[in-house]
Amino acid sequence: MQENHSTESAPESHFNESLCANCQINVYEPGYAINLCSDCRKSLIKYPIPKWIKFFALGILAVMVISLLRTQQYISAAVHLGKAENAIDQKHFITAQRELSLVLNKFPKDFNANAYMMVASAYNFDFEAYQIAFDKIADIKTEDENLLSKVNAASEYIAQSFPKDTLMYKRIVAVAKDKEKLLAMVDSTDEIVLKTHIANFLFETKDYDRVDDIVNKVLAVDPNFYQALSLKTAVKRNTAKYDEALALCDRLLAFNAEDIYVLSQKARIELKRKHDREAAVFASKALSLDPDNDSAIEATAMVDYFAGRKKESLASLAKIKAHETHSGDSTISKRLSPIILGSEIYR
Fold first, then answer.
1. What is the pLDDT at residue 7?
2. Which end of the chain has the least Cβ crowding within 10 Å, N or C?
3. What distance in Å separates the CA atoms of residue 89 and residue 95, rounded to the nearest whole number?
């Protein structure tokens, strides 16, 4: 007969709630959510975090930071693009181009920004900026008919500056100082841009009647031809038809309300008829749009000269000459120098 064995289980260990929940030896520290003694609490706090958890956390943090930065860039770009669109609607093309440059600095391939840059730079006659934007989107199609219409109109506007018959243009430039040869070439071309170039060279001879006659023929073909209207303002200024000159300037400003050349021209017209206060306003506005624009600096120099600020006017002349060492075009300094140096009577 086998001996019987007891099947009753051993008594379970008793958990003492008054002791540390981890070691069950020491009394726990009161005031914490988890009842741990001082030693266990310190050891658990110092327990090393696995490296993979650290790397994972750093990865998440990096993604969050990058996402935040990109979100800020997108928001900033959208704001500047919106400002550019509003500026274009108001024909404030200097402002628009400035805003678009900020967008393209962050997103150089953005289609809309480049398309609007073509529009703004065209009306500012900024050929380099126009070409850069054009090259980026030339092969991209868009279904935005409104934007496409604006781009096409702007492209036609800037294209008026380029003669198709480049050989004829070179012939005109070659005889730029020969009045008779220039006059003989007027009827040798049908291109209004070439006729305007001839008139522009004739302007230096001060034969304003001949210049005005050529310009009028050009405007009969295209009443809004920029170069012809611009030259006509100078003719009206120098023939003391100041109100007509200012009216022509306003026609040009209808194309681009921030046209620095035209604003500077208005300043020169007002100075010519001794409206110095009005001239100062136009010169200041032109200079505020672009402090490095030579037309704006010229107008400011003339305002300073007639206000008795000869030192300031000479400083402006020096700045223009410094710019001309890079551009190679000394047109402005040549017409400004005699005035502020006193060898030519402007008014």
1. 41
2. N
3. 11
pTM, 2 dp: 0.79
Burial of 251 (0-12, 13-18, 19+ CB in 10 A): middle
Are 88 and 116 a contacting pair, CB within 8 Å?
Answer: yes
What is the C-alpha separation between 153 and 227, in angstroms, rounded? Answer: 17
* Contact yes or no for 250/224 (Cβ under 8 A): no
Q: What is the mean pLDDT of the chain?
A: 91
Residue 83 confidence (pLDDT): 96
- Where would I find the H helices in the chain? 38-45, 51-89, 93-106, 111-123, 127-137, 145-159, 166-174, 179-185, 192-203, 208-221, 226-238, 242-253, 260-272, 276-289, 294-306, 310-327, 331-340
Separation of CA 251 from chain center: 23
Residue 13 tokens read as 């260990």
Q: Output the CA–CA distances (angstroms, integers) from residue 95 to 75, 148, 267, in the order listed.
A: 19, 21, 21
Residue 292 CB partners (closer than 8 Å, separation 6+): 323
Average pLDDT over residues 58-74: 71
CA atoms of 339 and 322, how far apart (whole Å) = 19
* Closest by CA position to 184, among listed 160, 203, 210: 210
pLDDT digit string, tens, across residues 255-275: 999 999 999 999 999 999 999
Neighbours of 277 (CB within 10 A): 9
Q: Are 26 and 20 in contact (CB under 8 A)?
A: yes
Q: Kindly state the tokens that stand for 38.
A: 């001082």
Q: Are 80 and 100 in contact (CB under 8 A)?
A: yes
Say what the pLDDT of residue 220 is.
97
Query: Which domains, and CATH codes, for the chain?
Result: 14-47 (no CATH), 55-159 (1.25.40), 162-239 (1.25.40), 256-347 (1.25.40.10)
Q: What is the pLDDT of residue 69?
A: 62
